[in-house]
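User: Can you model how S-adenosylmethionine sits in this protein?
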Amino acid sequence: MTDQPISEATARPNVARMYDYFLGGSHNFAADRAAAERVLEIFPETGVAAQTNRHFLRRAVRYAAAQGVRQFLDIGAGLPTQGTVHEVVRTVAPDARVVYVDYDEVAVAYARQLLTDVPGTAVVQGDLCRPDDLLTHPDVRATLDLDRPVAVLLLAVLHFVSNDDDPWAAVARLRDATVPGSHLVLSHLTLDGIPPELAERGEAIYRNSSAPLVPRTHAETLRFFTGYDLVEPGLVETTRWRPDGEPELVNSHGYAGVGVRR
Ligand SMILES: C[S@@+](CC[C@H](N)C(=O)[O-])C[C@H]1O[C@@H](n2cnc3c(N)ncnc32)[C@H](O)[C@@H]1O
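Assistant: Here's the modeled complex, given as C-alpha cells:
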C-alpha cells in the first residue's frame, strides 16, 4: 500500500490494518504502522502473539470440522492473511461453507478481491454489535443454513467492543440463532498480570485508533460462553488450547476456548 493516506479514514490508525502489520502483512498505511510500532515498543511480543492467535484459529477450526461442523461464520475476520478459514477447513472438509464478516470496508474490499472465485464462501460487511442485521443478511442466508450447526468464530474481535455496547448480549443473540451442536470459537485479549501503567499506555494508543482496546479478565471472557459447554481444556491461555506441536514462543496475552451449544 502507498504511504500516502488516500482519505481521512486512512490517516487514522485502524485496528484491522495494525493487526495486519503485526502479522507482517502489507495492507497497512503509515498511520497504522506508526501506531503499531508504538504498541511494539511497549509489548515487543505482539507480533508473535498475533501469530499465536492465528495458530489457535487453525487448531480450533480443524477441531470443529472433526466434530462434523461444515459451516463457519467468521466475524471480525480481518484482512485476508495466510491460513484463512476456508483454506484451513477445506483440507479436511472440502464441502465446508464460510462467511467472512468485518465492519471495516478495507478488510471487506480485500477479502472480496481474494474470494470472488471461491464457491461456498461469502464476504459480508457487518457489525458484530448488530447481530440481527448480520443474521438476516441475504449473503449469510444464501451461504449458511442456520437449521444446521454453525461454528461462530470470534477471534481477537470482542476486545474491540466496549462494555457499553454489551458484547455479551451480541454473542448471546448469535448463540440463540444457532442450533444445538453449534460451536463458539473465541479468543480474547487479556492484560491480566500486566502492570497497570503498561496496560494504560497500550490502551491509550488504541484510544486514537478506529476502535478502543478492551482487555478482559478470565471471568469476563468466560461469560461469553454462557449456554455453551466448553470443550477441554476450557478457556485457557491461547498457547495452551490443544497445542499440536507448532512452536509457541510467547505469552499470547490472550484467552482462547471452544464451546458447544447446548
Ligand atoms: C485483530 S483483528 C482479528 C482478525 C482475525 N479474527 C484474527 O483473529 O486473526 C480484529 C478485526 O475485528 C474487526 N472488528 C472490530 N470490531 C468489529 C465489530 N464490531 N464488528 C465487526 N468487525 C469488527 C476489525 O475491523 C478487525 O478486522
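A couple of observations from the model: The CA atoms of residues 87 and 186 lie 19 Å apart. The chain has a mean pLDDT of 94.
User: Helpful, thanks.
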